[in-house]
Design goal:
The chain is globular and about 40 Å long. It is mostly helical.
Length: 108
């Protein structure tokens, strides 16, 4: 996933923080959450295609896209719930660091 894409998504969320919080919280709109997840997965797969010069995607690519986006959505929900504690730049840096370098770097 490209840094600018994550920044764009988080900027849009930040500009609409109260509405997005209502849609993504525990009593929020499950349809919105699913549409957002599907959109992010499509974008993630497009990024994978760009990075691999449009090689044929495998079953593992679909699994990886779902895994990545589920994690990103979890971090976004965490950020919304802790909005006053974390800056957007903290979240962008974290998502990109984990995406590019993996979880293992955080536990070494």
């Amino acid at each position: 996933m490209l840094i600018s894409f994550i920044e764009q998504i988080l900027t849009t969320i930040e500009e609409n923080i109260h509405m997005v919080n209502a849609l993504l919280n525990k009593t929020g709109n499950i349809s919105f959450q699913e549409k957002l997840r599907e959109f992010l997965i499509e974008q993630n797969i497009m990024t994978f295609k760009q990075l691999t010069n449009n090689k044929k995607l495998t079953k593992q690519t679909d699994i990886l896209a779902n895994y990545t986006i589920s994690a990103v959505l979890g971090v976004i929900k965490f950020w919304i719930g802790n909005y006053n504690t974390y800056e957007k730049s903290d979240i962008v840096a974290f998502i990109n660091d984990v995406t590019l370098h993996g979880v293992i770097n955080f536990i070494k």
